[in-house]
Amino acid sequence: MSEPSITTIPSTPQPTSTAWLGCLIAAVLQVFLTAPVQAADEYRTVTVADPYLEMRTGPGRGYPIFNVVDRGETVDVLMQRTEWYLVRTDNDKEGWVDRGQMELTLQPDGSRVNFKEVGLEDFTNAKWEAGLLAGDFGGANIVSLYGGYSLNPNVSVELWVSQILGNFSNGWMGSLNLVHEAFPEWRVSPFFTLGAGVIHTSPKSTIIQGLDRTDQIGHVGAGVRLYTARRFLLRAEYKSYVVFTSRDENEEVEEWKVGFAFFF
Amino acid sequence: MESRFRVLFLTVAIVGLSGCAATKNLFGGGQEEAPPPSAEAPGQVIDPQVERREVKEPAIDREDFEVGGFVGIMGIEDFGSNVSYGLRLAYHITEGFFVEATVGQSEGGLTSFEVLSGDLRLLTDDERVMTYYNLNLGYNILPGEVFIGEGRAYNTNLYLIAGLGSTRFAGDDRFTVNVGVGYRFLLTDSVALHLDFRDHLFDIDLLGEEKTAHNLEGHLGITVFF
User: Fold this and answer.
1) Reduced to 3 DSSP states, what percent helix, strand and coil does chain A have, rounded to the nearest 5?
2) In chain A, what are the domain boundaries?
3) Domain extents for chain B?
4) Quick one: pLDDT at residue B23?
5) How far is the CA of B224 from the CAs of A30, B124, B194, in angstroms?
6) By the 8 A CB rule, do A254 and A263 touch?
7) Contact B175/A165, CB-based, under 8 Å?
8) What is the mean pLDDT of chain B?
9) B124 near A CB under 8 A
10) Which fold has domain A122-263?
11) Pairwise CA distance, residues B124 & B117, whole Å
């Protein structure tokens, strides 16, 4: 397909309908046209080492077992979705097998297959993290996205982008944070953070017309990261902001947020 | 006699050699003389030129992400119903939970007030365009299978979603809470059809008093796992 890849959303506030539709169709088409490439790949072959391997009709606990593969027979692993593996037997039957059973299969050289999932250790040592939090920013609603990079298990740098939606004004905020975790190996890991950035506010259109403002901000905060499962964590935090306004007094704003994140 | 001489010479030789060895150890030279650990094992005559065969197993294709688009109808409170369309990206965390981001667009029509009043307009055409984004947590509450005829079975999921985001309508960005129910029908293990019903709730004070507007949306979509 010679068409350039269009998978992003137009950032203009009011894109035309045709542009949206074109974007949508291009994105869906592209996914369809690139998907079959995967089918030509070679698959990993494993040998059943347990007395038998149970194949289910779907990737879930409740789906019925419709086929069993005996010890010594081989299966091709076509794909993985969450904790489930789609396998194909020698006589072309396809079904889903859970990770627990896949761990009991052998590779062609006789060694065990490593189907180990990410765990608490990866939570401590992961380099990258991204997440979404929402909460209250001085009485207004706030939705935030962030991405972080770990310099070491204790210290990481984070870039935050937030949208603030209040009763009287809306705005956005961007900031760069330094985060310190004293006990990164704990499942519930507390952290301290400080950072700086900019905040842009514009009064709502139904209120009298005021001027848009862009001010610098600084903040300190604390929170916890809670490891749940796989690459998933919950995060809650409090930050205290100082907005350096051009008026006589600086503004202070308190913020509470909860949300979730992934590490990878 | 000969054997006696042999024994004598051997004894002298052994004592002498062991003496040398003892002296060397005494001056700390013994360690240096130790043969370096050579790559070649002693007594190995043939160096096999065959390299150890490394089995490089192909990586397993992970398909936890789901991307696609949807088209449907959205009823904007007081502003009538219109076509809506958008994009969706989801990540499946476990067999039950997934997170999902959607962006969409629709357009508001005329309120009854505007229709009755003739030329009076509350909003410009640009302000009537509604764009939204939502970030949701979803749960596959009723996974199952459906059968078409005798020989075909398809996996399905009934799921619930809830989340928040922002909607731009009538000249403002509005904090939006989003709840819904959806049905995922897997055509193959990688392609799914969706039927979704969602309610976008936000506060609006355009018509005099502030109220929470329910904006109901129903859409059909197609997604691909990758």
Assistant:
1) 15, 55, 35
2) 1-37, 42-106, 122-263
3) 2-33, 65-225
4) 46
5) 11, 37, 11
6) no
7) yes
8) 82
9) no
10) Porin (2.40.160)
11) 16
pLDDT in tens, B7-43: 666 665 565 555 444 444 444 444 445 555 555 555 6
For B65-225, CATH number? 2.40.160.20
Is the CB of A27 less than 8 angstroms away from the CB of B87? Answer: yes
Half-sphere exposure of residue A28: CA atoms within 13 angstroms, side-chain side: 20
Distance from CA of B51 to the nearest CA of A (A): 16
Q: Which of A13, A60, A232 sits opposite B93 (nearest CB)?
A: A232
Rounded Cα distance, B89 and A148, in Å: 21
Token pair for A2: 């010679």
Report the distance separating Cα B136 and Cα B200, nearest Å.
12
Could you tell me if A205 and A182 are in contact, meaning their C-beta atoms sit under 8 angstroms apart?
Answer: no
> Hey, how many other C-beta atoms are within 10 angstroms of the C-beta on A44?
20
Q: Which two tokens stand for residue A182?
A: 């004293």
Task: Encode pLDDT of A36-65 as tens digits.
Answer: 444 445 788 888 888 888 999 999 888 999
In sequence order, the β-bridge partners of residue A18 are none
Q: Which residues have CB under 8 Å from B127's CB, separation 6+?
A: B169, B170, B171
Tokens for A116, please give them: 């180990």
pTM of this structure: 0.72
Distance in angstroms (rounded) separating the CA atoms of residues A20 and A11: 11
Q: State the DSSP H helix or E strand holding residue A84, giving kind and residue range, or none if neither.
A: strand A84-89
Helix (H, G, I), strand (E, B) or coil at A43: coil
Q: Is B176 helix (H, G, I), strand (E, B) or coil?
A: strand
Query: Which parts of B57-214 fold into alpha helices (H)?
Result: 112-117, 125-128
pLDDT digits (tens, 9 = 90+) for A175-215: 999 999 999 999 999 999 999 999 998 887 665 566 778 89
CA distance B189 to B66: 12
Paired residues of B103 in beta bridges: B87, B133
Q: Where are the alpha helices (DSSP H) in A68-108?
A: 99-102
- Tell me how close the Cα of B155 comes to any Cα of chain A, in angstroms: 7
Token match 């109808």: residue? Answer: B73
Q: Terminal CA-to-CA distance of chain B, rounded, Å?
A: 92
Task: Tell me which fold the domain A42-106 belongs to.
Answer: SH3 type barrels. (2.30.30)
Whether the CB of B155 is below 8 Å from some CB of chain A: the reply is yes
A chain contacts of residue B145, beta-carbon cutoff 8 Å:
57-58, 63
> pLDDT, tens digit, for every residue of B48-86?
676 666 666 777 888 889 999 999 999 998 888 999 999
For the record, the structure tokens of A104 come out as 């009991």
Q: A103 is written with which tokens?
A: 């761990």
